[in-house]
């Protein structure tokens, strides 16, 4: 089954083709992402109406480009998957409208995919994928959640952020320190190496929020405030900026790691799947690999290019659901707020 995946939940236009006749990473025939970073940079954040309009401009050319790279024609497709939520309603409707139109014209099934399920399943596209049950850490600009995955489509929320998501905290902290949008990757790079010297570990020590109490929920707003005050009261030199960035990154990574260990204990699992934009952070990857290795388990990540929003994860998740016989009606419908626990179970194997 060859499935076209379309992702338009926010400010990336992603398109991919996944072929279930192939295994592992070979199943991803082609994928492309167009980022709107430059469009939104002058506003310091995503402007929903501008995001929707840019999806309209970029989506069809990106579909044509991806099909050409996969050496396929529209008529070769067996299904279409699209992000139906959560996300910005206007942006979601662009992808859903194009996907439903293609499916109707080609007389093939279409399925709406939960954006966070796409992230969660992305590591399963890699060679030697993990098998359920496992614990998943979904960590991005909009979400920070720990989920017990009993089977594909069977998800139990173990903990989530009570305020800012980890990626959002990265971006907001970077903005406070004058780093360009999007600030999260800039801050991580600064923590590793400033123009003159690396950020010194331990020069600034920030709290590890909510780790001194039981439970698996997160909170990053207080940490963000600590950094803001430290920056305000500092000499605001390049070296200090790097030191504060390193202290902030260490605090976030340690907090996520502590909660992941607790979640693995609570679920009785030694396999951790990590997905979402913050999952590309090198220090976080190293820390979680080390923790799981010491437990005799493993931490599984998608390749860095598939950590941020992309069409590949939507094509893959959609292919699993289409193979299970799940598909949508002809109506163009999106769900901007969508609880992943309400998703139906995927009962068929991921093979033809």
Automatic annotation (TrEMBL):
Binds 1 Fe(2+) ion per subunit. It catalyses: L-threonylcarbamoyladenylate + adenosine(37) in tRNA = N(6)-L-threonylcarbamoyladenosine(37) in tRNA + AMP + H(+). Pfam families: TsaD. Gene3D superfamilies: 3.30.420.40. Its EC number is 2.3.1.234. It is found in: Cytoplasm. Keywords: Acyltransferase, Cytoplasm, Iron, Metal-binding, Transferase, tRNA processing. CDD domains: ASKHA_NBD_TsaD_bac (cd24133). Its cofactor is Fe(2+). Substrate binds at residues 138-142, 171, 184, 281. The keyword Amino-acid biosynthesis does not apply. GO terms for molecular function: tRNA N(6)-L-threonylcarbamoyladenine synthase activity. Residues 28-316 form the Gcp-like domain. Fe cation binds at residues 115, 119, 309. The keyword Phosphoprotein does not apply. Required for the formation of a threonylcarbamoyl group on adenosine at position 37 (t(6)A37) in tRNAs that read codons beginning with adenine. Is involved in the transfer of the threonylcarbamoyl moiety of threonylcarbamoyl-AMP (TC-AMP) to the N6 group of A37, together with TsaE and TsaB. TsaD likely plays a direct catalytic role in this reaction. Belongs to the KAE1 / TsaD family. NCBIfam families: gcp_kae1, T6A_TsaD_YgjD. This is tRNA N6-adenosine threonylcarbamoyltransferase. The gene is tsaD.
């Amino acid at each position: 089954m060859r499935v076209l995946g379309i992702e338009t939940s926010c400010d990336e236009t992603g398109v991919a083709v996944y072929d279930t006749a192939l295994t592992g990473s070979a199943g991803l025939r082609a994928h492309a992402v167009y980022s709107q970073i430059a469009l939104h940079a002058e506003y310091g954040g995503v402007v929903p109406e501008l995001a929707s309009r840019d999806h309209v401009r970029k989506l069809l050319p990106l579909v044509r480009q991806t099909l050409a790279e996969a050496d396929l024609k529209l008529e070769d497709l067996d299904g279409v998957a699209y992000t139906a939520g959560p996300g910005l309603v206007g942006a979601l409707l662009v992808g859903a409208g194009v996907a439903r139109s293609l499916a109707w014209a080609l007389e093939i099934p279409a399925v709406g995919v939960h954006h966070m399920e796409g992230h969660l399943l992305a590591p399963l596209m890699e060679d030697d994928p993990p098998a359920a049950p496992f614990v998943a850490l979904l960590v991005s600009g909009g979400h920070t959640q720990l989920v017990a995955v009993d089977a594909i489509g069977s998800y139990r929320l173990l903990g989530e952020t009570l305020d800012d998501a980890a990626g959002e905290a990265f971006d907001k902290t970077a903005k406070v320190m004058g780093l360009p949008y999007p600030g999260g990757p800039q801050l991580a790079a600064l923590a590793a190496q400033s123009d003159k010297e690396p950020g010194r570990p331990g020069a600034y020590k920030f709290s590890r929020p909510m780790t001194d109490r039981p439970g698996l929920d997160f909170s990053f707003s207080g940490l963000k405030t600590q950094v803001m005050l430290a920056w305000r009261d500092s000499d605001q030199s390049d070296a200090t900026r790097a030191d504060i960035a390193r202290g902030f990154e260490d605090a976030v990574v340690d907090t996520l790691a502590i909660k992941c260990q607790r979640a693995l204990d609570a679920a009785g699992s030694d396999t951790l799947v990590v997905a979402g934009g913050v999952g590309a952070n090198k220090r976080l990857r190293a820390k979680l690999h080390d923790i799981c290795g010491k437990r005799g388990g493993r931490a599984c990540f998608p390749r860095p290019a598939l950590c941020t929003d992309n069409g590949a994860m939507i094509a893959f998740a959609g292919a699993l659901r289409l193979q299970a016989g799940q598909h949508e009606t002809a109506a163009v419908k999106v769900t901007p707020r969508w609880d992943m626990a309400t998703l139906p179970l995927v009962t068929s194997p991921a093979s033809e």
